[in-house]
C-alpha cells in the first residue's frame, strides 16, 4: 500500500505531507496554547492538524520502510549508515506527533469547556510536545535530505 504511487516510489511524495503538516501543527498548537485571543481562530486548524499530521507521519514512516525493503535492503557503507540514521528518527517523530495531536485535541476541548486549570496543564504539555515533534521532524527531514543529496 505504501510502496508506489502511479509507478513512483511513495516515500518521496508522502514525506512532503509530514514535513508540512507537522510544523503547522507545532505552530498552531503553540499559538493556541500561549495566545488565548487567537484560540477562536485556531481551534479548527488545531483539531484538523491534530488528526492529519500524525496520519501523514505514519504514512511517511510506512512508505519509508517499504522503500528501504524494496530498494535499499542490502545497502551498506556510508549510504547504509545515512539511511539508518534517517530511519532512527521515524518512530520518535511518530510518537511525538501522536502525543502532540492527542494533547492538542484535549487542550482545545478543555479550553472550550472552560476548564482553566487542566487546560493550562495541557497547554504546557502541548508546548513541550510541540518542541519535541519540531525537533524530530527537522532531524528526520535533514537526515533524509543528507542521505539523498549528500549534503
From TrEMBL:
Q: Which residues cross the membrane?
A: 12-35, 41-60, 89-111, 117-138
Does DNA damage count among this protein's keywords? no
Write the record's keywords in alphabetical order, separated by commas.
Membrane, Transmembrane, Transmembrane helix
Q: Is Transmembrane one of the keywords UniProt gives this record?
A: yes
Q: Where is the DUF2231 domain?
A: 7-149
- Source species taxonomy: Bacteria, Bacillati, Actinomycetota, Actinomycetes, Streptosporangiales
Q: Which domain of life is it from?
A: Bacteria
A Pfam family in this protein? DUF2231
Q: What name appears for this protein in its UniProt entry? A: Putative membrane protein
**InterPro entries recorded:** DUF2231_TM (IPR019251)
Amino acid at each position: 500500500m505504501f510502496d508506489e504511487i502511479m509507478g513512483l516510489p511513495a516515500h518521496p511524495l508522502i514525506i512532503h505531507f509530514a514535513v508540512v503538516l507537522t510544523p503547522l501543527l507545532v505552530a498552531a498548537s503553540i499559538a493556541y496554547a500561549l495566545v488565548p485571543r487567537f484560540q477562536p481562530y485556531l481551534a479548527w486548524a488545531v483539531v484538523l492538524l491534530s488528526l492529519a499530521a500524525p496520519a501523514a507521519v505514519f504514512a511517511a514512516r510506512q512508505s519509508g520502510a517499504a522503500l528501504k525493503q524494496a530498494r535499499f535492503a542490502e545497502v551498506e557503507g556510508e549510504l547504509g549508515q545515512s539511511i539508518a540514521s534517517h530511519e532512527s528518527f521515524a518512530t520518535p517523530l511518530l510518537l511525538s506527533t501522536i502525543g502532540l495531536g492527542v494533547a492538542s485535541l484535549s487542550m482545545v476541548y478543555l479550553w472550550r469547556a472552560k476548564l482553566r486549570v487542566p487546560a493550562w496543564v495541557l497547554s504546557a504539555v502541548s508546548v513541550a510536545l510541540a518542541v519535541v515533534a519540531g525537533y524530530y521532524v527537522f532531524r528526520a527531514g535533514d537526515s533524509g535530505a543528507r542521505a539523498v543529496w549528500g549534503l
